[in-house]
């Protein structure tokens, strides 16, 4: 055992040492194997536990998934039922809405049809009115054409002006206060003579219509043409004014003023606005130009003057009638006083009758209640008359 097997450096290794080292190495190997086997067993147990844990977790997850799937199926079923109910409700609402919309469309179409029919009826009425208006316009155009033809002719134009003047005078004055084509002492005949009350001198009115000169003045475009037309207009109007002044103004026989009637408001306005010197010359010649409206005003003033004159003439008769009226009023007052006295006497009589009636009522009440004061007076019953045998 002490035999040396080998030498390592300076140290000699014996058999015993070699065996001891072998035993120790074998023991170390066994220990290492035991440790390795223990670790492998622990690793397997750990893996088995982990596997078991994973299996349990997987089973839990599968169970949770199954539960979730069941819940999902239930929810899907409930959702399907809900969707079915909603779809049915939606279908019902859609049908109701469609019915309402159809009803409204029907009413709207009916209303629209009715309005259309009414509009067409109004349109037909308007068309009828337009046809009538067109007929009236046609008639008016023909009348305007006729009036233009009348105004184009001097004689017809003069007759037109005289006709307007006569219509205004006849409408405003009573008969006897005017005369047409009245003959003066110089054998002239003005268109109209108006007789004022209290004055034997007539107011002369003569109709003149200087339409051609006014039309030429209006249609003038250049200054030279307008100047010539204005000169012509002045000459024509002054000629008419001079004719009226020379023929119809007779001192002591006619009024100091005469009226020149211009039967067109536009022509009179043209003369009055653009030819003031002409109006002044005519006034100095004691001739006043009047339009239809001014002639109406003058006739109204004359009518009021005639009415005042008739009132003054009838003042004595009015005073006499007022006196008779006052006499009648006095007699009426006397009779009313007498009637009042009669009513007073009748009122007193009625009062006495009411007093007697009250006494009779009181006495009847006492008789009915058998209330008598003292013995009273016995009133004999009335004796009836004898009845004859013949009766």
Describe this structure as you would to a colleague.
74% of the residues lie in helices and 8% in strands. The protein has helices at 15-152, 154-172, 211-219, 223-248, 265-274, 276-284, 292-313, 315-369, and strands at 4-8, 11-14, 178-180, 192-195, 202-207, 258-261, 287-290. The chain has a five-stranded mixed β-sheet. A two-stranded antiparallel sheet has the order 1-2. The longest helix has 138 residues, at 15-152. It is elongated and about 210 Å long. 13% of the residues are buried. Mean pLDDT is 78; it is low at 375-391.
Keywords for this entry:
alpha/beta; two-stranded antiparallel sheet
Brief rundown of the structure:
The protein is of the alpha/beta class and 391 residues long. Helices cover 74% and strands 8% of the residues.
Q: Structural class of the helix and strand makeup? A: alpha/beta
Question: Which stretches are low in confidence, meaning pLDDT under 50 for 5 or more residues running?
Answer: 375-391
- Sheet with most strands: 5 strands, mixed
Helix amount: over 70%
Q: How far is the N terminus from the C terminus?
A: 212 Å
Name the overall outline. Answer: elongated
By DSSP (H or I, 4+ residues per run), the number of helices equals: 8
The beta-strand count equals: 7
Rg of Cα set: 70 Å
Strand content: 5-15%
> Strands of the biggest beta sheet: in what spatial order?
3-4-5-6-7
Mean pLDDT: 78
* Helix-strand string: EEHHEEEHHEHHEHH
């Amino acid at each position: 055992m002490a035999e040396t097997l080998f030498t390592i450096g300076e140290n000699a290794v014996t058999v015993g040492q070699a065996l001891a080292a072998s035993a120790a190495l074998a023991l170390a190997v066994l220990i290492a194997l035991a440790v390795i086997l223990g670790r492998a067993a622990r690793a397997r147990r750990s893996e088995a536990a982990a596997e078991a844990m994973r299996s349990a977790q997987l089973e839990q997850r599968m169970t949770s998934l199954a539960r979730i799937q069941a819940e999902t199926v239930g929810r899907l079923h409930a959702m399907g039922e809900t969707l079915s109910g909603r779809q049915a409700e939606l279908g019902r609402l859609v049908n109701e809405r469609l019915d309402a919309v159809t009803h409204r469309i029907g009413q709207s179409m009916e209303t629209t049809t009715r309005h259309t029919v009414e509009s067409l009826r109004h349109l037909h009425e308007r068309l009828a009115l337009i046809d009538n208006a067109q007929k009236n316009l046609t008639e008016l155009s023909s009348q305007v054409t006729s009036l233009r033809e009348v105004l184009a002719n001097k004689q017809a134009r003069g007759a037109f002006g005289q006709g307007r003047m006569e219509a205004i005078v006849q409408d405003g004055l009573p008969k006897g206060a005017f005369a047409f084509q009245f003959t003066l002492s110089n054998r002239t005949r003005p268109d109209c003579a108006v007789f004022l009350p209290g004055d034997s001198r007539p107011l002369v009115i003569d109709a003149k219509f200087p339409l051609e000169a006014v039309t030429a003045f209006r249609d003038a475009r250049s200054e030279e043409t307008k100047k010539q037309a204005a000169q012509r207009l002045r000459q024509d109007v002054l000629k008419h004014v001079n004719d009226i002044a020379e023929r119809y103004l007779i001192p002591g026989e006619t009024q100091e003023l005469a009226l020149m009637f211009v039967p067109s408001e536009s022509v009179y306005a043209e003369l009055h606005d653009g030819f003031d010197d002409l109006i002044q010359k005519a006034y100095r010649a004691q001739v006043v130009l009047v339009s239809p409206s001014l002639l109406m005003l003058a006739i109204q003033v004359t009518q009021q003057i005639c009415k005042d004159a008739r009132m003054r003439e009838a003042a004595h008769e009015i005073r006499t009638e007022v006196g008779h009226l006052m006499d009648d009023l006095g007699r009426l007052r006397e009779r009313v006083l007498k009637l009042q006295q009669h009513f007073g006497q009748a009122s007193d009589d009625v009062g006495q009758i009411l007093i007697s009636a009250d006494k009779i009522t009181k006495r009847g009440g006492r008789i009915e209640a058998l209330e008598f004061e003292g013995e009273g007076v016995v009133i004999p019953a009335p004796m009836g008359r004898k009845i004859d045998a013949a009766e």
